Amino acid sequence: TLLFDQLTSRPTGAKGREVVAGPTTRGTVPHSSSAPKPQLEYQTAMELELWKMQQEEEFMKGLKEKEETQLKLLAEEFQKRDKQREDVLKQKMDYYQSLEGQLAKTLKELESQRQKLKAREQDMVSTQRRLEDEQRSLQYDAKREKGLLQSELEGNLQIEKLKSKEFAIQLDRARRQVSELENKLLQREAEFEMYKDKIHSQSSETQLQTELGLLKLEKAELEHKLETVTKSKQHYKDEWSKALKEVASLKHREQTVMRDQLKKQQLELEAMRVKYLRAEEQQSLQQQLQQIKDETQRLRAQALSKTPVPGTPRHTPTRQTTPILTSPRLQTIDANIARWIEERNILLQTGVYTHADPTIQKLDKKIQEALLEKRSTYNSSS
């Protein structure tokens, strides 16, 4: 445009006056070759201006095409990223739904187990009461039977003592009589010998035989009395040993009953201990499931908060979004948590291990550390 203005402007003199071509003072005519020069310059300027406008139009057209191409590429990239985000969100929602279903199923199973445990506890309480009643009844019967047997044995013992005293008196009396009779017999035998020597020729044989028979009868009677006293003494000894054996048997039976009752009580206490341990285990499992449920709700809320609202402009991310809950790292952590929980439950159900054992505490520590690692991994990825 500046060149065109310069070409179309009229030439001026040194002081700004226009130079007008005209006849010279001498009356000469100007040269014919200088007349078409301004027209040629004007035509050249016009062609240059037209070329410039054409180049501007072509440049603007190319720029517009590039802009449309770039916008198309950006739109395709945005749709691609948006589809990826929707796929990730769908995967997360599916995972959340499956996890929620598992939690609901687990809670339902825990509720049924709790009902069964409650019913078993009621049965155990009724059984314990019945066993306590039976134990009291058995103790009362044992005490009553023991008292009756003891009183009976004491009565028999008193009777046997009296009999023993009588037998002892009779035995002493019989012994004294035997000794007296033996002395008399010796004396009679001596007298008989003396008498036999003196009146051997005078006494008749029948009288001697009669006296000898009387002495033999008296001796047999004394021997019979001695044998009776000996048998009575042996009977007293047998009765006394029998009474002692009955007392020992009664004590042994009472001790056996008490041992059986103690053993039964120990078994009942062990069953109650196992029951309470299982109740504590179920409570701990419910707490852990509640923690997992809270964590799931928090993750779901966080995922929903990151979901773009329809109608609002969404910025294209500078890097590709990585799936969080479906990453191999988190899957490994979830698998380890499930495996450790299952191992801990199996060990507790055996009844050998309790929550105070080092093995169970070590598994609990691993589970807590895995949950913390999962949370930190999720936060760092998000």
Question: Can you describe this structure in just a few lines?
Answer:
The chain is mainly α and 382 residues long.
The level 1 CATH classification of the domain at 133-264 is Mainly Alpha
Give the SSE order as H and E letters: HHHHH
The total of beta strands comes to 0
CATH topology annotation of the domain at 133-264: Helix Hairpins
- Estimate percent helicity: over 70%
Number of helices: 5
What is the radius of gyration?
66 Å
The geometry reads as rod-shaped
Which residues form runs of ≥5 with pLDDT under 50?
Answer: 1-35, 308-326
Separation of the first and last Cα atoms: 60 Å
Strand portion:
under 5%
CATH architecture of the domain at 133-264, by name, is Orthogonal Bundle
Mean pLDDT: 75
- Based on secondary structure, the structural category is mainly alpha
Main sheet characteristics = none
Keywords: Coiled coil
Region (Disordered): 1-37
InterPro entries: CEP120-like
Biased composition (Polar residues): 1-11, 25-36
Description of the molecule:
One of its GO terms (biological process) is regulation of cell cycle process. Residues 96-130, 164-302 form a coiled coil. With 382 residues, this protein is an all-alpha fold. It is built from five helices and no strands. The chain is rod-shaped. It starts with a helix and ends with a helix.
